[in-house]
Amino acid sequence: NTVEPTPYELFYQFESETTATSTTSNWSPSNNWVNGSSAVNGTYWGRVSNKTVKGWNLDTGTTPSSGSGTGPNDGVDVSDGSHASNTKYMYTEVSSSRHTRCFVARMPLFNSSNMLDSGNDLDLKFWVHAFGTAGTLPDLFVYIDTNTSSNHGTATLLQTFLGNDLDNDYTGNSSVWKLKTVSLNSYRTVDA
């Protein structure tokens, strides 16, 4: 007899986290995430140029952006991507010259060696809302690294979501959130 393995899912929600919406502060996660300069080896992230690292913010409702009508109306309903009131989400505030910074957050390490079936996909999935002034949305880079802190030179780039491409997916701050998937299959460690 064989037993079909149960799919393993790790789902992060931030509902118990304290919001941080000030442009001078970073969200301080308490769920084993690391945010801002604590996630970086050094002061800068040098993908294109040495940009000063800043942490992500956490909010509900609309963002406090100085640009009228930018940002989402609210957090995401993960069943269909629609907006869900009083649902917290991570965001970056890029108005007022904050677009010159690099926003870094690090999720906890996941040990995939406990997965028995290497035939199943191992994916990172997350929801994105990227409405803003046309042509000004920043790029989103997804990296993988097992070090406790890293930088562009030590982490491995998995996927890039270009701001101009993201911009085409949204027509307003009420546009639905989009689910993005990044394959982690190449980084799985499976014991024989």
What this model shows, in words?
It contains one helix and 13 strands; from the N terminus they run E-E-E-E-E-E-E-E-E-E-E-E-H-E. By secondary structure, it is mostly beta strands. It has a three-stranded mixed sheet, with no helix packed on it. Strands 1-9 form a two-stranded antiparallel sheet. A hairpin with a 6-residue loop joins strand 5 and strand 6. The model has no long low-confidence stretch (mean pLDDT 79).
Features:
mainly beta; globular; two-stranded antiparallel sheet
- Number of contiguous helices: 1
Fraction in helix: under 10%
Q: Which stretches are low in confidence, meaning pLDDT under 50 for 5 or more residues running?
A: none
The profile of the biggest β sheet is: 3 strands, mixed
Q: What's the gyration radius in Å?
A: 17 Å
Strand order of the largest sheet: 2-3-8
The overall pLDDT, averaged over residues, is 79
Distance between the amino and carboxyl termini: 20 Å
- How many runs of DSSP E, i.e. beta strands? 13
Give the overall silhouette. globular
Strand content: 15-25%
Order of helices and strands: EEEEEEEEEEEEHE
The secondary-structure class comes to mainly beta
